[in-house]
Amino acid sequence: MYDKLFDDPSLPVGKPTKSYWQNPPHHGLLGIKSKDLPKVRDVVIIGSGITGCSVARHLLTGGYKGFLTVLEAREVCSGATGRNGGRINAVAVLDYDKYSRLFGSKAAAEIIRFELSHLGELLDAAKSLGNEAYKKSEIREVETVAAVFSDDKLQDLKEQLAKFEAALPDLAGCWKVVESEVCEVYGMRNACGALIGKAGAVWGYRLITEIFTSLSNKYQDRLTIETQTPALAISPSGTGNEPYSIKTPRGIIRAKHVIHCTEGHISHLLPNLRGILVPRRGQITVLNPGVNFEDSKGSRSWSFYHKIGFDYLSQNEHTGELFVGGGEVGGFEGALDVHGIASDAAENMTAKSHLAGVMPVVFGNERWGPEQPQKPTLKASWTGVMCNSLDKVPMVGLLPQEALGIRSAGDEEKGAEWLSAGYGGYGMVNAWMCGKAVAEQLIHQKRPSWLPKEYVLTSERMVHLRKRLFDIKGSAEHLRALL
User: Fold this and answer.
1) pTM listed for this prediction
2) Domain of 403, in residue numbers
3) Which of 79, 260, 334, 381 is positioned for an S-S bond with 419, CB 3.0–4.6 A?
4) Which residues cross the membrane (predicted)?
């Protein structure tokens, strides 16, 4: 039953569920491709979500003079970035607790600062596009409310916050734990308390497509975007300057560098990573709020931490519609249902049913109220594919030989394969800066010091992961390691 954790995630499916974020599509990028596929490129980026966009942007604006092609199996930003929950939310206090247990307090603090840098970096990127595109992206800072529903979970929050502030004293006061306020101010009559802080929200599909449009216009002589052009295989080219041949349905491209930015599909072209980077399908819904629900005008996002699993929620600042995701409340068996699944062509029906009804349970019928006239509660729903790593942190950088199998590892100067993947559902507080790190290392032939060391995919890390995988493959422990 655990064999599916090793399955080939294959290419993205041709007919995915319809993401509300992608309606309407960006018509300037829809079906974009060159008349003839380029034969030779300095860099080929596989994937056009936030990671691939970040790599392309930071190469082109960072002084790199080479020629780039972005390959996309479907349409620009049609994968995880265009199917997410709309949040830029670093759960810093909870993440510090998790990472300090795994890597120690110093490493945990570095990871937290890295995650927290994303909101400012993405705001700057959006503002650089001009006022119209900035407004269209709806990127903004929000208040975040992480609610718990038992006294022991509330006590955990208090203890975690105390440890967090002791380790990062400059961030003391940025988060607080509330008890009675969770009902009186935040309207969650069935919660025991909550952790309050700040985060971000964004229409990710619009932001990324606007960035790609800007890059395509400004660097049209050095950048091509090839939609409906999946990378089918990678092999040695036999030439020194462009050591890689990337096979596509439209022909072959030779490239000096190949950068894998395909998240849940990453191990399709990198089979040595199967079981180490594992796809996971997540569920999102759009709900029309009940008539009594307080409209936050897009200034707030929420998380609901249940005994098993959690849900998350953001509100559109213009329409008041609620984007509610999660629903992974089936425990260990439920987790098995969604891990190893790389298709976004179907929905997770248990999660969808849970999400469609969770709001009046959390806020109470009085605060939620009846349905709005002529507006059914459930407006839209879809799925997206995330990627979990076996050691619980992303994998970034040059691919070592142990990850490549029969293909030879390269280097920054002569050419290489690279990756950035394994964000565990937190791509919006990892992917942008991971992509930037790859671009900077390629340009300067030196890894940036601000990238957490735990993220770097070294030979030693791969050897450790493969040994770990050998010890647990085919067992329940394999799934537990991914959770």
Assistant:
1) 0.97
2) 3-83+205-278+390-482
3) 260
4) none
